[in-house]
Amino acid sequence: EVPVVESGGGSVQAGESLSLSCAASRFTITTWCMAWFRQTPGNRREAVAVGDSDGSTRYADSVKGGFTISRDNSKNILYLQMNSPKPEDTAIYYCAARRGGPLCLPVVGHFNYWGQGTQVTVSS
Questions:
Q1: 91: Cβ–Cβ under 8 A, 6 or more apart, which residues?
Q2: Distance, first Cα to last Cα, the chain
Q3: C-alpha span between 63 and 53 (Å, rounded)
Q4: Of 35, 42, 22, which is closest to residue 91 (Cα–Cα)?
Q5: pLDDT per residue over 56-66, tens digit each?
Q6: Phi, psi dihedral angles at 55 (to 5 degrees)
Q7: Across the strands, what pairs with 13?
Q8: CA distance 92 to 119
């Protein structure tokens, strides 16, 4: 059983909103650092948004003001709301989880669990 599973990807026109979900199993996200990363062919996986268990968040400069990371602890689900996406936001989006600790960093090697990814395609 995969610990985190993404859903909600698809194809949209630039400017159309899209929401991604990440359902967690085998653990409760309440005390975990959760994040969204993305990757395009030939490029490194990059952090999009990170949300710590205390409610703090941080975003990549390229998505600030447009994307929002949030979580519903009662449903054990992490979300990424993508408003006004651009063609350059086209990528495979991954959900990541890290056991609670003092740090919650937007670094690939920092995370314990990864989802299989969901494709997001934004056309102009």
A1: 38, 39, 40, 119, 120
A2: 37
A3: 21
A4: 42
A5: 999 999 999 99
A6: 95, -10
A7: 123
A8: 4
